[in-house]
Amino acid sequence: MTRDEVIDRLVPLMEDIFDEEDLTYADSLTAGDIDEWDSLSHIRFMVAVERAFGIRFAAGEIEQFKNLGELVAAVTAKTSG
Q: What is the span of the domain harbouring residue 8?
């Protein structure tokens, strides 16, 4: 799966989970940039990502993501093999 395909599928998930309409994607986006992104919604988001892409992340992997761009890179790597 390409990076753009991952982003195209990720944005609607984020809009749904974080209750944000017309979310604008940016690699630098973090939880601090979205009001509804708290610890509970973060768990829901990561579960939704794993289900949507048919992948799994170890807890250590999730803790290492500093921004959305790093998550997209990880999903792209896991789905392109």
A: 3-79
